[in-house]
Amino acid sequence: MSINIQDMKFFEGNGSTLNPDPLESNFSICAKPSSDIWDSAPDTHRFNAPILYRTMPLDAFQRAQVTFSSEFSSEFEQCGLLLVIRRQDGSHSWVKSGVEFTHGSTYVGTVGKDRWPDWSIGPLSTPGAKVTIELLRDPLGLAVYLVKEDEEKALLRELTWVFDAHGNEECWVGAYAAKPGAAGPDLVAHFQGLIIEQRN
To answer: CA-to-CA distance for 109 and 117, rounded, in angstroms?
Structure first.
């Protein structure tokens, strides 16, 4: 079953915004400074970036895909696709994949956070171009793909722990943007073609 974009919810985080209203298939998320989704030992837990998401049982998730772009200017600005697992003890595990700006360049990056985050990045063949990311449930777990212009897919990560759960966890699936730095203008990320599929 595919999800109607009008059925999505918006988590505004630290006061960020979503446009247009009412929501259309092409939309923008505006992330304010000091917004992020990130954890680091021993006690940093940040979860205040804006997210346009759909809620579903984790065991119902099948696939999500979105195309996006932005103009990046400061360290660790990012946007992309996100899956958040809301654990029974109130904690979050999550997977985010998209484009991130670091060391003066843009990269395609994926972070999987079960206990603590594990971040990987790789070069973009065409910096500044639109990027399409897909999250796909497969027999091994959750596969993360970069979808190229010819629809060929490049595997970025395989995360085997994502569905190793009690079976009744809730998850959020959707698009996000983040601007971890405290200075500079808001980050505006543009999205199109958001697809979210779940089992009936």
So the answer is: 12
- Identify the domain containing residue 103 by its residue range: 5-198
- Please report the beta strands in 58-186, taking only residues with DSSP state E, as ranges in sequence order: 61-70, 78-86, 92-102, 105-113, 117-123, 131-138, 141-147, 153-159, 170-178
pTM above 0.90, yes or no: yes
pLDDT tens by residue, 158-193 = 999 999 866 679 999 999 999 999 999 999 999 999
**CATH code: domain of residue 84:** 2.60.120.200
- Domains contained in the chain, number: 1
Q: Is the dihedral of CA 101, 186, 69, 59 positive or negative?
A: positive
Q: Are 29 and 16 in contact (CB under 8 A)?
A: yes
CA 130 – CA 132 distance, rounded (Å): 7
Q: Determine contact, residues 100/106, Cβ cutoff 8 Å.
A: yes
Tell me whether residue 140 is exposed, middle or buried, using C-beta atoms within 10 angstroms of its C-beta: 0 to 12, 13 to 18, 19 or more. exposed
pLDDT one-digit tens code per residue, 38-63: 999 888 899 999 999 999 999 999 99
Is the peptide bond between 127 and the residue preceding it cis, with omega within 30 degrees of 0? no
